[in-house]
Amino acid sequence: MKNQNLAYLMAFCFVSAPLTVMAGAYVSSSGAAPDRITHPSGYTGSGGVLDVTVCINPSSESIAEMIVSVENVVNTFNELQPTTGNVLLGGSNDIPSGAIDFESTVLHEVGHCIGLAHPNLASESGLAGADRNYTKSDEGPNNTFDLGIGNDGLRGSGDDLRGDDINLHWFRMSNNNPFSIDAVVDVSTYSRDLDDLPGGDTYAANADRDVSGLFGIPTTEAVMQQGAFSDEDQRALGHDDVATLRLGMAGLDETQGTGDDYTLNLIYGGVASGCDVTITVTGASFAFCSVPTTTISGNHRRVTTANAQFGSAANFNWFFNPNPNQQELIFADGFEI
Amino acid sequence: MKYIYLTCSLVVLALLSGQAQADSLLYEKVFNQFAELDNRMTLSVSESGEVHLHRPSFMTYPGDHHWQLDATAVAELWAALQPATLRELDSGLMTQALQQLRADTEIYVSDSDTTRLQLASGRGDTHELVVDGLQGWALTFPQQSSLQILAATESRLVDWVNFYLTREQRS
């Protein structure tokens, strides 16, 4: 037995490279397919209201504690309201010191579950520390990330020097400002092609909290930016989050105001199975969403069914927000709206 | 009597499952979604049963913990971990298989934690397994037995840690 194990050891033992996952501002984009746009579950190219059900797994832990947070996240995506100042730390929020806000984490993961990727390079790049804040890209022909910080000394800003890295982040052509949004969000106003950047800019800026200071909009960050802190409330979408969703909502022709446009309508389906997005609290991983996609046509893909999982409250110091973000209005006749 | 029989069985099982080649272990889990400097849980168990644990501030039971296992507890741990089975796993091959599956299925798993499990024998040889997004990929590809084994091992290890932490808190 010992000899057999030793043989296995000699044959198989080595240090492997971590698994990397490449994706862009949409989960299915990559260097090979940079223009791919990922739509939420159920979109086939027909316009109208796109219902996406979000449910809590009946076998999940902490069901009672999480319901308000999940309902709040559904409301937040449906309101699709871009905000500034959406990073609330320490005494500015209701989260106990050292705790992690469950609702903020669910908002981020459900964003993945409906097709959004990190706007920054994030951990899937294999890079460490602050270099993960550079804008989402593929390594390009030289197979390495080119990470020139530029004169402003900020990673992820418009003056970064990124060599042959293939940009995967859609930016607003008029100003490359991810803390703003155009009235029209489609390929007439947003681009992934660096040739469409405003004069003087060298790379797409992402909605990182440090970059927000450059634009005079501090304590603001895209919800989809990877890089969370404990005692941090980020329960409202940023402009970049909304713009990326709205670009998808412009449909297969990527043009707003045409027949294939859709309106995203998340529906909280309660504690149930078989929904488009299923949320489970269990285990030792912090949080992830498993997002399978399938082709609609051309560069357009859609999520099939997504599973978001959050670590057990036995392992993580979650704060479950008890306060609904949408008040039910009840009229004197007893009917709600 | 029943307890003695159970203990003996576990010790024998541990020996059969390769304890002799896995006298110590190091387990790390890096929570990549956190930008905080301290985003890593580490657990080490020495040959003599000395346990050192660090949990970052956002976990339950944060901070550094230390406790000593007796011989029975060490044997039980190895019996639960089945090191001989773990030594047959190869994270390089697992990673390759995953990359192929991802290419075939176009599945994305967000915000992967990094799991590192290192087994070392008394002779100084080590076997290391490193996988990004272990639990996410295990959930996504239930037919991948290597992933399932490693994910289940990680879960058992974390449950084992929580058992001791809960006991420590009670005492």
SSE map:
The complex is a heterodimer of chains A (337) and B (171).
Chain A lengths: L1 H11 L24 E3 L8 E9 L6 H17 L8 E2 L10 E2 H12 L23 E2 L27 E2 L3 E2 L17 E2 L17 H6 L17 E2 L5 H11 L12 E10 L5 E5 L5 E11 L2 E4 L2 E5 L7 E2 L18
Parallel strand pairs in A: 1-13, 2-10, 2-11, 4-15, 11-14
Antiparallel strand pairs in A: 3-9, 5-6, 7-8, 12-13, 12-14
Helix pairs in contact in A: 2-3
Chain B lengths: L1 H15 L7 E7 L9 E6 L4 E6 L7 E6 L2 H11 L1 H5 L3 H15 L1 E3 L4 E7 L5 E7 L1 H7 L4 H26 L1
Antiparallel strand pairs in B: 1-2, 1-6, 2-3, 3-4, 6-7
Helix pairs in contact in B: 1-2, 5-6
Structure description:
The complex is a heterodimer of chains A (337) and B (171). Chain A is globular and about 55 Å long. Chain A is built from five helices and 15 strands. In chain A, helix 2 crosses helix 3. Chain A is an alpha/beta fold and 337 residues long. Chain B is of the alpha+beta class. The radius of gyration of chain B is 17 Å and the shape is globular. The chains are: A alpha/beta (337), B alpha+beta (171). Chains A and B meet through helix 1, helix 3 and strand 12 of A and helix 4, strand 5, strand 7, helix 5 and helix 6 of B. Strand 12 of chain A pairs antiparallel with strand 5 of chain B, so a sheet runs across the interface.
Brief summary:
Chain A has 337 residues and is an alpha/beta fold. Chain A has 5 helices and 15 strands.
Task: Give the CA-CA distance, first to last residue of chain A.
Answer: 70 Å
Mean pLDDT of chain A: 91
Relative strand content of chain B: 15-25%
Given the helix and strand composition of chain A, which structural class is it?
alpha/beta
Spatial strand arrangement across the major sheet of chain B? 4-3-2-1-6-7
Strand order of the largest sheet of chain A: 1-13-12-14-11-2-10
Spans of chain A of at least 5 consecutive residues whose pLDDT stays below 50 are 1-24
Instruction: Identify the overall geometry of chain B.
Output: globular
Rg from Cα of chain B: 17 Å
Q: What is the helix/strand order of chain B? A: HEEEEHHHEEEHH
